[in-house]
Structure formats: structure tokens, C-alpha cells
Amino acid sequence: MRIFLFIAALFATGSSHADWHYDKQAIMGTEVHLQFWVDDDSRADEIKRAVMDEFRRIDTALSPYKEDSELSRVNREAGKGAVKISQELADIIQKSLYYSDRTGGAFDITFATLGSLYDFRKGESADIKTTESLLPAVNYRHIALDREQLNLAFKDPRTKIDLGGIAKGYSVDRAIGILQRFGVQNASVSAGGDARLLGDKRGKPWLIGIRHPRDRSKNAAVIPLENTAISTSGDYERFFIDDDDHRVHHIFNPATGKPTDTDAGDTGSDQDKLISVSIIGPQGFDTDPLSTSVFVLGKEKGLALIEQMHNFEAIVIDANHRMFFSSGLEK
Ligand code: ADP
Ligand code: MG
Q1: Helix axes 284-297, 299-308, angle to 10 degrees
Q2: pLDDT tens column, 61-106
Q3: Which residues of 239-277 are buried (b: 16+ CB within 10 A; e: fewer)?
Q4: Residue 61, Cβ neighbours under 10 Å: how many?
Q5: What number does the ligand 1 atom closest to the CA of 254 have?
Q6: Are the beta carbons of 125 and 117 closer than 8 angstroms?
């Protein structure tokens, strides 16, 4: 009898008890993962929908693979003259240009002038002649952004942009903003290599794994984190191995117009070549472009940049598979 009453009481309170909720969807060419705690279960589905809709909205605007995205329109038209753009696109381009300045051009969204000719699934890359002829069009200084009038023009008609090095970090920040508006205090949101954590895991830190860059089944490290963002860039996400045994991957050196050299024993010093970079900092809008930047800069210049920046830390793995930390993590 007592058991029966207990069960009845459970039903009477409906589903409004506190619990963890999960969702996972394929958006932006990657998997978006969401985990959050709510005190009132009845809003969980609404929250999931709002977060995933925001990822889809941003993808619709910024995808280079969707012909009717704002980004695709800009890439078709801005080389011919100024085009009107949204406040959101202007803000993301402005942030990208800030990191181009700050990194001496290592972060450069005009890499896409050549990058758009690569297809990692099909194993296609730009040939040497095309690379040489288009290289002058890869330069963030060709981007003329008028933030007052919301106008954008490319000074070289061949220039194209791609926001793949910053859009996912921006999106996880937007997702966290939505969760906060719903009153959520503990959450984890990730889109591929970009994650942002809200609060802790209710009394414990979140445990974030950094994948082993050459063994998908292993973690190279697991880091306890709370209330922060972490972005990882690696040469193992999108790549193919070409006929000369070189790894052709999705992070470009704007100075050469080609993917950075991450092959051990090849040109340059293996100690300076990075194959995985993780950046920890307050928001994805910064950690995402910084992980790409440090990857291109290499270990010495990359870690020096992070040392200069307040509130940011780095974990990097070189071509010899050795791991290094910025000074704030070594303590
Ligand atoms: P992901 O999370 O997709 O692995 P990363 O943060 O590692 O992304 O950034 C890689 C993406 O950034 C590439 O897929 C490309 O869209 C873009 N990208 C590549 N090289 C550069 C560069 N030098 N500057 C800015 N963006 C870049
Ligand atoms: Mg990045």
C-alpha cells in the first residue's frame, strides 16, 4: 500500500523534477553535443530545440557549402564591389581581422581563396600553378569592412572567405547564452573541436578529453574544467595522405596557400611543428581562432602569443608527439 502511494505521488508531480538532459545532432559538418541540468524537466525539450535551432540558423547563414547562405552570396559578389552584410557577419569578420593583425596573418579567412579548391573526402587539392597564381589574393588586407554602413568588399576580385576557423566557437557561445536565458546553470556544449562549459558538473569539474592526434581510440589528455571554453585544432580531423606521403589537411598557412606541414622528418624543425593545439579561455569566439592561429604559428611563436594573452592557456602536441603547456598550466 505504501509503495502504491509513493508511485501515485510520483505521477502526480508529473515530470517536473530535476535531471541531466542530452542531445546530439549533425550540424555544421560535425556533431553538436549538448548536456545540461534543469530543475524543471518540462522545459528540457524546448531548451534543446532552441539551442539546436541556433546552430542551424548560423549554419544556414555562414556555410560555404550552401549556395544561398549569406557567406556564399558575399563570396560571389564582394569581389565586384561593396555588398550589404548582416551585423552578425560584420562582427565575425571584424573579430577575424583582429586575429589576423594579432598573428601577423597566420589567421586569415581569405585562405579560402585556395582552400575552397580542396576536397578532403575526394583527396583533391589545388595544383602548384593555381596555388602560385591565386596566392596574392590570399590576404586579409584585401577585406574592406565598413562596420558603420555594414558594407563588405574584396579588393582582389578572386578573394574568397571561409569562417570555419571561428564559426563553431562563436556558435557554442551563442548556445550558452540561450541556456543562460532559460536559467540553466550547468551545461556543456560542443561542436566538433569547440566546447564551452557553463558552471561545473554539479559539484565536480567537467572532464574534457583531448584526442590523441594519431590514435582515434585514445585521449592524449583529460582536463578538468569549469565555466570556460576550450577549442582544439588538429591535422587529423579532415585530411588525406597524398601520393608523396604528405598529410594534406584543413589548416592552411596563408603565407604558402597550402596546408601547414605537419609531417615529422620533413622540412623545418619537428619540435616547432604542431599537430594538435588546444586553447582554453573565456569564450569560443576567441579560443577557436586562437587554436587555428597557434597551429599555423608553430610551437615557439604560438606559445609566445598565448603567454602574452591574459586568461588564455594552451596545450600543444608537436610532430614528435610530445606535449607542451603554457606557463599557467605548468604550475
Ligand atoms: P575544426 O574545429 O573544424 O577542426 P579548427 O578550429 O581547427 O576547426 O579550424 C580549421 C578550419 O579553419 C578549417 O576547416 C578552415 O575552415 C579554417 N582555416 C584553415 N586555415 C585557416 C587559417 N590560416 N586562418 C583562418 N581559418 C583557417
Ligand atoms: Mg579554431
Answers
A1: 150
A2: 999 999 999 999 999 999 999 999 999 999 999 999 999 999 999 9
A3: bbeeeeebbbbbbbbbeebbbbbbbeeeeeebeebbbbb
A4: 19
A5: 23
A6: yes
**Set of cell numbers at residue 202:** 554539479
Ligand nearest to the CA of 288: 2
Nine-digit cell at 253? 598557412
Mind listing the pLDDT tens digit for each residue in 252-306? Answer: 999 999 999 999 887 778 889 999 999 999 999 999 999 999 999 999 999 999 9
CB 286 near ligand 1, within 6 Å: no
**pLDDT tens per residue, range 293-323:** 999 999 999 999 999 999 999 999 999 999 9
- Ligand 1 atom with the smallest distance to the CA of 109 is 25
Give 14's pLDDT tier (boundaries 50, 70, 90).
low
Counting ligand 1 atoms within 8 A of each CB, the residue from 211, 251, 297, 305 with the most, and so the one to mutate, is 251
At residue 17, does pLDDT exceed 90? Answer: no
Q: Is the dihedral of CA 261, 265, 267, 269 positive or negative?
A: positive
User: Is this prediction's pTM over 0.90?
Assistant: yes
Question: Which ligand is nearest the CA of 163, by number?
Answer: 1
Q: Cβ(196)–Cβ(179) under 8 Å?
A: no
Q: How far is the CA of 198 from the centre of ligand 2 (A)?
A: 20
Q: What is the DSSP string of 54-111?
A: HHHHHHHHH-TT-TTSHHHHHHHHTTTS-EE--HHHHHHHHHHHHHHHHTTTSS-GGG
Nearest to 279 by CA among 294, 263, 267, 291: 291
Q: What is the 61 CA–ligand 1 centroid distance (Å)?
A: 18
Helices (H), the chain: 2-12, 44-62, 70-77, 87-102, 112-115, 128-134, 167-181, 284-297, 299-308, 327-330
Tell me which of 63, 102, 252 to substitute to probe ligand 1's pocket, judged by most ligand atoms within 8 Å of the beta carbon.
252
Provide the total of helices (H) and of strands (E) in the chain, helices listed first: 10, 17
